């Protein structure tokens, strides 16, 4: 049983949003989860009022540039048939949004999204916008301690991420197996191997890690270890087990999200900030491209605004004076 009906519902949903309509493809009791300052919103009307109308008024001539699109059955206990998308919303930053000052110039608002479709409607969404990435394009510098590279991040190296036609289920199972192997190795960071050796078990040597603004993008196992993975592990202790809501794959692409994905205690310096010893949660969308039996690319959107607010640092508020 394929996913053409669910994919079409989400494509219709996007077409309506991009035309300025108020989410007619969504159920009235839609459960929507988004990046700070939005959080959790109930109801399609409320999402339109709080998110999409203000955004369209501020970022004009809005255009969707989608790089990844696939669907699958969520095999975690929550279940459901989900459609996943990633790319950028491009437009002209003409009016203030979230208190950020407009530039009158082109901006690329990076997004990643999971949509649960039931009864011909979108009934649940996780829609993460990388707002700090937009802040940098608008001239703000929210994270001076960034360790990897700031980029407007591209889609898959293969340019084959838009799976409008259903793929062989066997390929999706291979992708899920690769993701599961990586998650099992990650565990609680106690596999007992040197970091680069651990990563080589499940990642290609020339892996691409497209991380969130504040951490950045990095390339190859050694540079990923140096510019993100090692500093991250050194900064945290008491990492909880993984708690995902949806995990699925189709073809060579797969991913997951959680609310939160995990918690960890900040016990070392991270992103230029000193530790406070607090336990905080991470809300993350992770998307992957498999090549062979290993992972080759990873697009990661972490709600760092929410994470740091738990530590008393209101990044958006400080930047906008609100």
From TrEMBL:
Gene3D superfamilies: 3.10.450.50. GO terms for biological process: polyketide metabolic process. Pfam families: SnoaL. SUPFAM superfamilies: NTF2-like (SSF54427). PANTHER family: ESTER CYCLASE (PTHR38436:SF1), POLYKETIDE CYCLASE SNOAL-LIKE DOMAIN (PTHR38436). This is SnoaL-like domain-containing protein. It comes from Candidatus Rhodobacter oscarellae.
């Amino acid at each position: 049983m394929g996913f053409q009906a669910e994919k079409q519902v989400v494509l219709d949903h996007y077409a309506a949003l991009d035309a300025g309509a108020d989410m007619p493809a969504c159920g009235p009791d839609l459960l929507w989860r988004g990046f700070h300052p939005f959080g959790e919103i109930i109801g399609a009307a409320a999402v339109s009022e709080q998110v999409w109308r203000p955004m369209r008024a501020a970022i004009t001539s809005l255009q969707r540039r989608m790089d990844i699109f696939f669907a699958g059955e969520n095999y975690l206990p929550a279940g459901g048939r989900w459609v996943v998308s990633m790319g950028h919303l491009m437009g002209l930053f003409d009016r203030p949004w979230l208190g950020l000052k407009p530039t009158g110039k082109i901006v690329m608002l990076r997004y990643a999204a999971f949509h649960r479709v039931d009864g011909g409607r979108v009934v649940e969404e996780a829609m993460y916008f990388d707002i700090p990435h937009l802040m940098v394009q608008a001239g703000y510098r929210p994270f001076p301690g960034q360790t990897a590279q700031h980029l407007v991040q591209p889609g898959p190296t293969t340019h084959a991420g838009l799976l409008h036609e259903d793929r062989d289920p066997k390929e999706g199972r291979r992708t899920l197996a690769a993701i599961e192997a990586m998650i099992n190795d990650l565990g609680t960071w106690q596999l007992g191997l040197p970091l680069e050796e651990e990563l080589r078990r499940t990642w290609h040597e020339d892996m691409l890690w497209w991380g969130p603004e504040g951490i950045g993008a990095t390339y190859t196992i050694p540079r990923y270890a140096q510019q993100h993975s090692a500093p991250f592990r050194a900064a945290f202790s008491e990492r909880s087990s993984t708690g995902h809501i949806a995990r699925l794959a189709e073809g060579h692409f797969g991913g997951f999200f959680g609310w939160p994905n995990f918690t960890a205690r900040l016990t070392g310096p991270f992103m230029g900030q000193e530790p406070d010893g607090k336990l905080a949660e991470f809300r993350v969308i992770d998307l992957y491209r498999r090549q062979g039996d290993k992972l080759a690319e990873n697009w990661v959107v972490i709600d760092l605004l929410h994470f740091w607010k738990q530590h008393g640092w209101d990044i958006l508020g400080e930047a906008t004076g609100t």
